[in-house]
Amino acid sequence: MYWLTTKNAVVLIPRWRSISFLLGTSLNRHFSPSAPPPLIRRSERIFCFKEKKLYTKPTKKHKQSKISLEEKDYAHVIWWKERMQICRKPSSVLLVKRLTFSNLLGVDDTLKNGSLKEGTLNWEMLQFKSKFPREVLLCRVGEFYEAIGVDACILVEYAGLNPFGGLRSDSIPRAGCPVVNLRQTLDDLTRNGFSVCIVEEVQGPAQARTRKSRFISGHAHPGSPYVFGLVGDDHDLDFPDPMPIVGISRSAKGYCIVSVLETMKTYSAEDNLTEEALVTKLRTCRLHHLFLHTSLRHNSSGTCRWGEFGEGGLLWGECSARQFEWFDGNPVNELLYKVKELYGLEDDITFRNVTVAPENRPSPLHLGTATQIGALPTEGIPCLLRVLLPSNCTGLPVMYVRDLLLNPPAYEIASTIQEACKLMSNTTCSIPEFTCVPPAKLVKLLESRETNHIEFCKIKSVLDDILQLYTISELNEILKLLMDPTWVATGLKVELETLVSECKSVSRRIGEIISFDGENDQKITSYTIIPNEFFEDMESSWKGRVKRIHLEEEFAEVDEAAEALSIAIEEDFLPIISRIRAMTSPLGGPKGEILYAREHEAVWFKGKRFAPSVWAGTPGEEQIKQLRPAFDSKGKKVGEEWFTTMKVEDALARYHEAGAKAKAKVLELLRGLSAELQTKINILVFASMLLVIAKALFGHVSEGRRRKWVFPVLTQCHSSEDKGTLHGAEGMKIAGLSPYWFDAAQGGAVKNNVDMKSLFLLTGPNGGGKSSLLRSICAAALLGICGFMVPAESAIIPHFDSIMLHMKSYDSPADGKSSFQVEMSEIRSIITRATSKSLVLIDEICRGTETAKGTCIAGSIIETLDAVSCLGIVSTHLHGIFDLPLRTKNAVFKAMGAELIDNQTMPTWKLIDGICRESLAFETAQREGVPVELIQRAEELYTSVYAKDSLRTDKSKSKHFIAPTVQKSYNVTDRQSHPEKEVVQSGSVEILCKEVETAVVSICQKRLTDLYKKNDILAPSAMRCVLIGAKEQPPPSTIAASSVYVMLRPDRKLYIGETDDLQGRVRAHRLKDGMQNASFLYFLVPGKSIACQLETLLINQLPSQGFRLTNLADGKHRNFGTSDFLETEMLVR
């Protein structure tokens, strides 16, 4: 009989049974002889092994037998050998020399501690290793996680651990980490791209001279952490973004990328991609593994240098810097097989296709476009993402916005997003905090049944936020609009009523099991004679996690055991303490106290010199006789000063047993709830993603309002079959366009008007703003087709099928290409993809080659783009283009203006009609500190060779677009009730809120009415306040609006304030200790002066109505913001 591992346990099987029989058919898959070996990175070498044997423990009747290394393991051994060859640390290099690649562990059984006989720990680890041969194996041994062979070398090289036993040459490589450092070690390994298989010991007593049973408790992969035991923790686990397995292939339509997420059990396949778009996708995500299909090769011999156009190329350069492996066959099916093999998944595991149909969807951004507008962070380029969202909006919402910019949505989705954003901009009610939980985290924790009470509280918050959106009429329409964008993001189609119904039932179920903050029926046990730290440590690991109603029996047992422990300590220890206190003596007298021995989880008596020299039957002597030395769990004496009694030890054992039973019950309930919610995974993923989108869009609207951006008119363009021109919209019109990296609210930006119905040929001086204009137009167009606000006063933007921006190019020595070659490669991609629905922006075309031929190439490109009838701009300093006989029909000449100031020509950074032949090259060089002598000589050379051209300064009048004014209503609606959302709020707080609102309205309404009457202004309707609950935030309509607010503190005191940034003020208040759940009442007023006066008025009058204020001193500023200035402001308004 042999012991062998199944997926998660060690089982006993008949000796004659083949190992491959249990490992499944997936490991015996046959590969075509012509195909490269599986999972080998660019290697077709054949290695010779000195020894291809596995040794097993012989029975009494048979001699020791040898089992050949199975053929399926050859590729894995080669893979590990390649990893060992790149080790660089001296200690790990020495360890590698002691490896022998005759088994998956690389263990040399001739060295000390290297035995692989059946029944040994090494043999057991080898069985686990054979189950997941590409993963580092960590095996729990007591208080350490140990690794041997190649795995030990990996720990030393990448986790910074020292080898066990130093660098002795007569022992196999061994290394490990303490149990407390497991998370750090796993982070180090996964950060370097390794997957880890963790083997745990079965906890509990074991028979003497027997090895503890072990099982595979879980795995840690890049982007997928180890979660075993999390269900019993009282803290959250940082969950990284999932890292997909990616496969790249090539077909007649272009490149195809297949992305598989093992955690989510999903995959997507995008085809018809250009090389630039594909490289952009590779650079925007962290990969776990990269597989390249053999269709990328030029020929069957497997040339290493491959690309779309000749040797090298963007894709070749990107992939050659990574570790990749080749595969063949059907790209989707074969990649899914690779994923199952890598993660050790069963063959019947299915993956859901979440590919979004590409119909009517714009092309993904090219790499150059994404980097030049800061959609991908690039040094020296203003980051577009930073200006789209508030600084406090981070994480998942930022990732969603970035992905949306890189992969613009279809017209219908963009229109839906814009409509939702418009509703958000006008919302007057308070909005949820939008709890964001990574969908991958939800799936992994629920499937592994390791969701703890903290995560369940977050899940319930997600569901309650959905219900709040559904309940409030203003937010209900927004919820409906967000359904389709969420479908596109998740690939899940869910009906609104189904979503709401499931959210209600799941939220209710979680509320039935989980205990929430504010429930005070699970207090930690307390007895005066027992240190509180003891009960805190023993009971905090299970109390307050599930509702007490499910643990009444367990609570009763714990309470009885705690009382028995208290009685035992009182009877056995307290008389001794009383005796010692009664004995007054100088230094050196008896000492004793009852203490908590945290390391041993016990309460013992600690004392010295307390035994009487003569036993006289005095109080306490009987208890002293019962004392015995305290021993730890291993039977070792703790010390000379620690004592206990049999009664106390029995009471401690009873208490620990009751506590362990209660904790086990809690874990059982939590795991049971995880199992229940597994059937609701799709709903939870959908709800979580919907809140991520909602938070991203609310954040964008808030930031857009602050920057005074506007919503563009998004038109659906279509091309004419006869002329190929753009119809359905009058081109693109943007009035008051400002660079996206400038804050228009702070002023200082030069604004331009763009009325584009065809291709612009743009000229202008150096530093005249050509590049900035192209970036600004590109960013505005991209934001518009995504449904976002744009940095302008008004805009009409067609829904382009692609937006392509080409700026300056650099050479690529790795690809063997000059800067002009790189530029031509990008231009080729633009030309082949441009249609009449495209926006093409090219900056300073053909500047990397000889002027005459570069001018002709530029002219031909302009003719081609003009014939396509796309919108766009081509900027240039090649003024010879205007002397060429260009065959253009629609191209328009535009220039960046300049003016003469103090006999110096200075740019105005304004777009005008005409041609600018002045480059201001000499002036620019002089401003940058080039020596005057050099510039003077350059001017002489220029005068002697080139004719002087005059600068055209005629400026065409531009039409002014007036941004529509948004009327703000200062009469906010009452807060509506949310019956579906469980809010822990006492009746006294609700009463206080109503009392404060009544008093505020009474005081302020009278003052506002008097002011309006005094200035003969029509008084507003009745003033009403808006409540911001404990887990809510102000709506975007409060941005840049004056408001007066009242903070309702948990101690029932009030704080009165005024602000023009209510979101920031609420956030600042809640960052203070004890104010996290503070509620607020606010109302909007027409101007800061009125807000200041009403603030002072409330501070002075609310105390007279019985309210307690924390900022009474602010009421002394009685004359602040009043008198004539206030009345003038009201008249203006």
UniProtKB/TrEMBL annotation:
- Does the keyword field hold DNA-binding? yes
The record's InterPro entries line, in alphabetical order, gives: DNA_mismatch_repair_MutS-lik_N (IPR007695), DNA_mismatch_repair_MutS_C (IPR000432), DNA_mismatch_repair_MutS_N (IPR016151), GIY-YIG_endonuc_sf (IPR035901), MtDNA_mismatch_repair_MutS (IPR053276), P-loop_NTPase (IPR027417)
Q: Which domain of life is it from?
A: Eukaryota
Return the PROSITE patterns for the record.
DNA_MISMATCH_REPAIR_2
Give the SMART domains listed for this entry. MUTSac
Record Pfam families: MutS_I, MutS_V
Q: Which UniProt keywords apply?
A: ATP-binding, DNA damage, DNA-binding, Nucleotide-binding
Q: Which residues form the DNA mismatch repair proteins mutS family domain?
A: 838-854
- Name of the featured protein: DNA mismatch repair proteins mutS family domain-containing protein
